[in-house]
Structure prediction request, 305 residues.
Amino acid sequence: MFFQAVISLVLKDMHFSKQECRPHCLQFVVVLIFLAMVGCGCNFRSATNYAGSYFNRGTNAAWLGVEWINEPQPPTAIAGLADELKLRELRYIFVFASYLKLSGEFNPTYSHAAEFTRALKTQYPGINIQAWIGLPLNQAGLFASDGYVDLSDTSVRRRIADFCARLMQQGNFDGVHLDAEPVPSGNKDVITLLDEIRQAIGPQATLSIATRRILPLFQDSPLSILPQVAWSAAYYREIASHVDQIAVMLYDSGLPRPELYRLWGWLQVKEISQAVMGVAIYPYWETDATGWAAYENLWLGRETK
Prediction:
């Protein structure tokens, strides 16, 4: 059964967010989508009988906390981390480095980045370490946010791009992982920022972005409320054409039952499958032994005791 595959256990609802969620609104939207799909006679059979390990390319990713680069880490801790990442075939790492504060300055929480990246690369050759940068965006309208970063401002975008380039050089990072929230579907300022960051960090660096859920149905609907809730397929394709990787944020579903979340995850992965290159675990420090066992069994194809 598909719901026993990797998506049902690895991409589980973890009941937390990087920003305040609005579960009741999302529940309402999801219920409408389900009703529409039932009305259309859609079925939810598995698209394949292959095990999750069949699709594993070894290009999996994990998010790491800021403590790895904000505080000095003993060599034994970094060596242990490297062993765990290699065992779990996690080759891409997003390390939280900083966020843009209301003052217009980036929080200085990356003073030990260079020593951490050098040590980890020594223990794990070939790993790709990206600096995870947060941008709390302002958003008006029905789903107004508490953010303050205005990406329509040329000087703000320049400050962000310059910081990305400087942080990459100083911290010996392989790329930048941009976490700008919330981004409504069709937003052009984010596209412009991605292009400016690419120009600043160069073509060889990895550029990735954390993305929102996709609209499973009515993707070209003229309803103005939908872009505030999820992205259209067209906008997903546009974003994907400006980055090397995307990491979909499927938590904060607001759904009351695991079965509904598995169905929601199936719908999301089905629609975004053209951009999926592996499994991303959010976040590393929240995944317990049970979660890792499911990941290793269903995605890596290993039997666990």
